[in-house]
Amino acid sequence: MTRRFSAGHRVVLAVVMVAGAARAAAQPSHPNAPDPKTVAKAEATVIDAAISDLRKEYAAHLKDPAHARLRPQSNYFLDHPVQLSQESLLDALERPMGDDPRGAAYVKWQLLSGAPEKFDAKALPKALAAYDKAPAPSARFGMSAEDRMKLDALLVKAKKEDDSLLSTRLEERVRTDAEENRPILAYRDALYARLPEGFDSVFAGFRDAHERTMAGAGAGTSDPHVAAVVKDAVAWAQSGTADAAQCGRLAELVSRLRFVRSPPYYARAGWRYDHLAWSSRTDSVYSAKKLENLENVLREAQKMALGQQASQHAAQPAASQQKSRPGRSAAGTKR
């Protein structure tokens, strides 16, 4: 009789496979020790089973959102503990996962629960590539020309006292869209948090912030994602290891982001003179003052790095001349 396994059983079996392969790989003298390809294949089996599970979770949510809720946290591999290599996880994050960007982001966000707290420097290029390919958030409702035409049509037969009702309906639609965007932003947040510290990671974080702002998906002056990126940028600039050219490049980017605002979108309905109209808003990337402070920190770090470079260049000729003087030993005495 053929025994059929559920998706959950497949995960457990795959976890056992990975654990066994890892134990054998850790013992070089073991006569049947697998090569890295065997371990990678076992890890891929675990990840494939997880992807299958997570796709079913998301499909069930689409069918019945009220009862089949998505996971509020990235915890799939906390429920199914297994040790996976960062290489296998990053390979999975680079895979296309269907035409629904929200579903793809949900699956990849949950896969990150099996990732280390920080990817190491060796994995940075692949992690940055995955971050660059992360699904983009949908534009805020009321931003596109099509949305504004639909909203304008609601005003034709509206009465003066309908302004509050129309505004409430718009806000409800915006909240619904924001909830659908949540897996996308959560995946981006989780992936950024695992990037190793440094210029490339911070630069990518600011690019992400710009994309969110252009979609009206950021949080403006109090955006928590940008707050994290700014904090990381300050730490990097003050670490003493920041490169002068990179500091200058990042300072230029930050100086431009201070003045970037989202495309306008309809925010509220209100009575204007003798008719109802929609008022428009735009959002900033982050607090202009805080970005200005960061730019100053980066400019100062650039000056210090340039000063250190100048000191090193000045010291090199002096050291070369000292070594080339004839008739003196290393201790400076005549021979």
In brief, what are we looking at here?
Helix content is 60%, strand content 4%. With 335 residues, the chain is mainly α.
Distance, first to last CA: 94 Å
Discrete helix count: 12
Q: Main sheet?
A: 2 strands, antiparallel
How many E-type strands? 2
> Structural class per helix/strand content?
mainly alpha
Descriptors:
2 domains, 335 residues, mainly alpha, disordered C terminus, flat, disordered N terminus, two-stranded antiparallel sheet
Task: Describe the protein in words.
- The protein is mainly alpha-helical.
- It has two domains: 1-115, no CATH class; 118-323, no CATH class.
- It has twelve helices and two strands; from the N terminus they run αααααααααααββα.
- A two-stranded antiparallel sheet has the order 1-2.
- The longest helix has 37 residues, at 288-324.
